[in-house]
Amino acid sequence: MIDSPQPRAVKLIADLPAGAAALVHSLTGGHDFCSRMANLGFTAGAPITVRQNYGRGPIVVSVRGTLVALGRAEASRILVRASEA
Amino acid sequence: MTQPLRQPVTPTRPLPRPNLRLVQPACHDAGPGALPHPEALTFALVGQPNVGKSTVFNMLTGLNQHVGNWPGKTVEQKTGTFRFDGAAANLVDLPGTYSLTANSEEERIARDYLISQRPDVAIAVVNAAALERSLYLVAELLALDTPLVIGLNMSDVAAQHGIHVEPHVLEAALGVPVVPLVAARNEGIRDLVAAAFKLAYDPAAFRPNRPVIRPEHQPVLEQLVEMMGGCACDRYAADWSAMKLLEGDAEVTAQVKGSVAPELWNEIHKVLLQHEDAYLDIAGGRYEWIGRMVRAAVTQPRAGAVTLTDRIDRVATHPVFGLGLLLAIFGLAFALTYAVATPLAEWLSEVVLGGLAGLAATLLAGAPAWVSGLVIDGFIGGAGTVLTFLPILAIFFALLGALEDVGYLARGAYVMDRFMHLMGLHGKSFLPLFLGFGCNVPAVMGARILEERRARFLTILLAPLVPCTARLAVLAFLTPAFFGSRAALVTLGLVALNLVVLAVAGIVVNKVAFKGEQTAFIMELPLYHAPNLRTVGLYVWNNTSSFLKKAGTFILLSSAVVWALSNLPGGNPETSILAMFGKALEPLGALMGLDDWRMIVALLSSFFAKENTIATLGVLFGAPEAGASLATQVSAVMVPAASVAFLAAAMLFIPCLATVATIKQETNWKWMWISVGLLLAISLGAGVVIYQGLRLIGVGV
Ligand SMILES: Nc1nc2c(ncn2[C@@H]2O[C@H](COP(=O)(O)OP(=O)(O)OP(=O)(O)O)[C@@H](O)[C@H]2O)c(=O)[nH]1
Ligand SMILES: [Mg+2]
Fold this sequence. Notes:
The complex is a heterodimer of chains A (85) and B (701). Chain A is an alpha+beta fold. Chain A has helices spanning 31-39, 72-75; strands at residues 10-12, 21-27, 47-52, 59-63, 66-70, 78-82. Chain A has a single domain, classed as Ferrous iron transport protein A (FeoA) (SH3 type barrels, Roll), CATH 2.30.30.90. Chain A contains 2 helices and 6 strands, in the order ββαβββαβ. In chain A, strand 3 and strand 4 (59-63) form a beta hairpin. Mean pLDDT of chain A is 87; it is low at 1-6. In chain B, the strands form 2 sheets. Chain B has a 6-stranded mixed β-sheet with strand order 2-3-1-4-5-7, with helices on both faces. Chain B has helices at 17-22, 53-61, 105-117, 131-141, 155-160, 167-174, 189-201, 218-227, 235-246, 250-259, 262-274, 278-295, 308-316, 321-363, 369-387, 390-406, 409-421, 430-435, 440-446, 453-462, 469-483, 487-514, 533-565, 577-584, 586-591, 597-605, 612-621, 630-635, 640-652, 657-666, 669-696; strands at residues 41-47, 78-84, 87-93, 121-127, 148-153, 164-165, 178-180, 298-299, 522-525. In chain B, helix 16 runs antiparallel to helix 23 (533-565), helix 20 (453-462) runs antiparallel to helix 22 and helix 24 (577-584) crosses helix 26 (597-605). Chain B folds into 3 domains: 1-212 and 283-305, P-loop containing nucleotide triphosphate hydrolases (Rossmann fold); 215-282; 322-518 and 533-696, no CATH class. Chain B is elongated and about 85 Å long. The A-B interface holds A 27, 31-41, 43-46, 51-52, 54, 56-58, 60, 63-71, 73-74 and B 98-99, 101, 103, 129-133, 136, 163, 247-248, 250, 279-280, 283-284, 287, 309-310, 313, 317-319, 410, 413-414, 417-418, 426-427, 518, 520-527. The site of guanosine-5'-triphosphate (GTP) has 29 residues of chain B, from helix 2 and helix 5. Guanosine-5'-triphosphate is lined by residues 47, 49-55, 67-69, 71-74, 95-96, 153-154, 156-157, 181-184, 405, 529, 532, 535 of chain B.
């Protein structure tokens, strides 16, 4: 958000624009979901890049050298933090 | 009493899992335990989805497993054999799985095989272009006691992306043989097999660097192993079960719970609750271990390079352009069919079949009337006419194969995600549904890649509404004579009708039966690559040759049966058994404008195989004569409004016998009957509504 007073440290993947890079902070949601995501490489500290995000509908994220499509609901359950440039 | 945990993991979810492994269709793998060479060594191909396992399998065994560029093609285990330096071996192709915690039907098949069947050596195929992620499964496999060799596949793709992997360094780090491969070009496969044989002959030489759990979880893991100590299983099995308990694996949890005394389970459960989040650390720990393994072996490209995949995806996965592209692809498929394939099919029908019929008539001039009738009207008119579909099918399959192999399919699924949500499904359901354009049977089987039972059942119910090539060929065959220059338009309209009905049925069934639950959409997008001519060629060959086989056996037989039933008793079709039957249904047919019993019989016969519509018409209308093709003859007995109604009903009709049997196998009796009933109602309903509607507005009557 342009007008937010200060950049929040932790954001949802779903809120990142295309091209943004970040590190996975944590996962929220049920055990099955978190376990699948962790197996796919979304573990704490893993670098990710958002490849596509049109504000609605699914998004594409690259993680550990692969492209993963995520529904918006799923992308809203992954928290990320800024990666030190 | 306790049981060994290593033995087949008992299913915990309701139907249909036990079926999947016990009742395999006869034409597929006979299932575990039925190895072609019981005495020979058995190797299993394992790996994450879309890494090239089936490509390796096909190269070695000469069989034709489905290969394409999207995750989730192989959905059942398949066994083949091969010889290497004089020694015979069995090779098992497994579905891809991201980890040994199975999330869907087909992943469970791979996992259960590895846990309970114990191949002599597991051949782990990994993708060099996505090494870290591919090695995740290897990290889990190393915790089992099955010896392992690694096939480092897609070396060419990695090189294109500037990723360089040093196989020897990786081999030294892992303590596991690593063989570089380009499976699609048959490079390195011999070396891979040699490594597998070597290990099989000397399993003691297998001393891998096994990943260890983070130190803070070591004590609890040991505690769990100790608590389950009463069970008569070996060290690896105990460790593995303890690990999966800690990871919260639903099946293993249920298995352990069922096999230990309740008091002990309470104790174990208490321990597990204290370590509820350990599974995240375990996954993180595996990736850290992988990071250490690959650090010295892999050179990564500079970050931020724009790849071909990025460029294509700017269009292909764009919410608007992507949809446009999907529609354009459909449009192209139909344009090609009508520009190239249909004229060819007509030529085959008139010139080749007409000639054949003439020839047969001369040759059989002296034979009894029933012999020439059976040959000319039954075989040539029926099965022969179906054979003229060949060019149409070849074009369809070439297009489908190319789309799959390029890597487009997953993009189509991504673009369709929003629309699938309307049915309580998500993009992944598009993958099996798309296979339905080829044939509905693999579409129903392919639904195994869906994680939730609800989504799987709904997708299976909707799959028959996707018009398969056989039905499309029926359309392409009949519409030119029925509608002249507007044939392509009518065809598009009818296909669109099917898809609209699919969407509406999906929305309604989801609302009524499933109360609109939502499921998680998580799907890997493969990198694009140029279509491999060999892969696409094989795909076309497989599908067309199985069509030829079907035409030469099943459809030939049906044609003969239809011919016999339409000539008995007495040899006059108008008073035959089939005519009686068809005429009894005429009141129903009349509602759709079908007052010729032959049309009703043709529609019903499509239940046995969709191509039978044409075979039956061919038999009942007699072999094509020069100048008047079958389609023209048929069009003469109906007004255009009835033709549209007939085609709509045929497109929406009950799925063919093979599909119905597969639906039963993948779901249950109840769901099969629901499917048959729903489609029967929809198809007859659509036929009646279309005919009556057109009549009301005075079009085509
Ligand atoms: N460029 C390149 N492509 C390959 C190579 N090996 C396989 N492929 C392609 O990769 C895709 C996937 O191959 P499959 O053999 O179907 O993969 P699989 O592991 O059996 O996939 P699932 O059954 O879905 O788990 C196909 O398009 C192959 O043509 C390779 O070494 N190089
Ligand atoms: Mg496969």
